[in-house]
TrEMBL record:
This is Trp operon repressor. It comes from Limosilactobacillus caviae. SUPFAM superfamilies: Flavoproteins. InterPro entries: Flavodoxin/NO_synth, Flavoprotein-like_sf. It comes from the Bacteria.
Amino acid sequence: MYKIEVAPDTFDRDMYKTDEIAIEQIKNNQYPKLVSEIPNADQYDLILVGSPVWQGAPATPVHTFLEQIKNYPGKVASFYTDAGMADGYEDTFKEWAGKLNVLPAHEGSNDLAAWIKELS
């Protein structure tokens, strides 16, 4: 398991301010750096990426993660949590994933185990 994590001062504790920060990161194509190196994932057939939904998109650190695994030969699938505004999440994830082999995403509050079983 790898935790997608950025420096503690990257975002605000207030979710609305964090949304504003993320919008600026996307607008300026300046995504946050991750605090730890991603281990070699080539030994895995599937990577699951979990994320909250920020303004209808994955959290911006996910962009950095996907960029760093852009040559991964296996499959990638995302699950997410949201408060009712996930429109565009899957499209944005696929855009950020580039040439990665992306499988359908899953809203995380509904039967995650069944979705994982479908992927295997």
